[in-house]
């Protein structure tokens, strides 16, 4: 009888992990897998702290507007080419563009331009649409401060940062103009798919 009870307990313990609910992301965090020709990475999008910006990014993901676009910019830091950011998205393709969104500064969200942060590219505040960039190394200069609205962080890469670093190291053209001079990737890295996990 005792032996039978022990066997039943052992069986219950053996199968309990199968009955346990799957691990859930933290409330307000949505994970998105980005598959590129250089490899894949996952970003955790923060819909709680940056709802406008995060939900805009997710709208592009859900409509598959990022699929087939590219990472076309590798902005390497002067003096340390292993730091900087990569930029990608719809790149002025207005057929894939949604209306511009209100700016959510880091002073409001509490998010920062740390290593792996994903943030919105823009011209002026309130003009961001379907362009984003990912930090390699921290850049507090991009955070909001007095007299400078900064850029809108809305999440962070949680796996696959070696892929982001690989894209940053891609060969670039020496030409270009303005802030993009010398930063356009010779063979842009294609975004094959971006989807929620």
What can you tell me about this protein's structure?
The protein is 21% helix and 32% strand. It is of the alpha+beta class. It has a single domain (27-196), classed as Cyclophilin (Beta Barrel), CATH 2.40.100. An 8-stranded antiparallel beta barrel has the order 1-2-7-5-6-4-3-8. The chain is globular.
Short summary:
The protein has 4 helices and 8 strands; from the N terminus they run H-E-E-H-E-E-H-E-E-E-H-E.
CATH topology, by name, is Cyclophilin
CATH superfamily heading = Cyclophilin-like
Report strand %: 25-35%
Radius of gyration (CA) equals 21 Å
| Percent range of helical residues | 10-25%
Number of helices: 4
Low-confidence stretches: 1-7, 9-23
Major sheet: arrangement of strands:
1-2-7-5-6-4-3-8
How far apart are the first and last residues' alpha carbons, in Å?
47 Å
In total, the number of strands is 8
Structural class: alpha+beta
User: What's the helix-strand series?
Assistant: HEEHEEHEEEHE
What CATH first level would be assigned? Mainly Beta
Q: In this structure, how is the largest beta sheet organized? A: 8 strands, antiparallel, barrel
CATH architecture: Beta Barrel
Mean pLDDT across the residues is 89
Domains (count)? 1
Shape: globular
SSE layout:
Layout: H1 2-19, E1 29-36, E2 39-46, H2 51-62, E3 70-77, E4 80-89, H3 106-109, E5 117-120, E6 131-136, E7 153-159, H4 161-168, E8 184-196
Antiparallel strand pairs: 1-2, 1-8, 2-7, 3-4, 3-8, 4-6, 5-6, 5-7
């Amino acid at each position: 009888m005792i032996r039978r009870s022990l066997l039943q307990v052992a069986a219950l313990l053996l199968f309990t992990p199968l009955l346990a609910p799957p691990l859930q992301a933290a409330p307000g965090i949505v994970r998105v897998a980005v598959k590129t020709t250089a490899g894949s990475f996952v970003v955790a999008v923060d819909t709680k702290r940056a709802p406008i910006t995060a939900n805009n990014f997710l709208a592009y993901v859900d409509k598959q507007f990022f699929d087939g676009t590219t990472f076309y910019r590798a902005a390497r830091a002067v003096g340390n080419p292993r730091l900087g950011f990569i930029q990608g998205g719809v790149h002025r393709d207005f057929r894939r563009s949604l209306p511009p969104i209100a700016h959510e500064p880091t002073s409001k969200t509490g998010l920062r331009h740390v290593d792996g942060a994903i943030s919105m590219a823009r011209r002026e505040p309130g003009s961001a649409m379907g362009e984003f960039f990912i930090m390699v190394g921290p850049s507090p200069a991009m955070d909001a401060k007095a007299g400078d609205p900064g850029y809108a962080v809305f999440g962070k890469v949680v796996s696959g940062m070696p892929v982001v670093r690989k894209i940053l190291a891609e060969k670039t053209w020496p030409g270009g103009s303005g802030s993009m001079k010398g930063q356009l990737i010779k063979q842009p890295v294609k975004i094959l798919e971006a989807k929620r996990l």
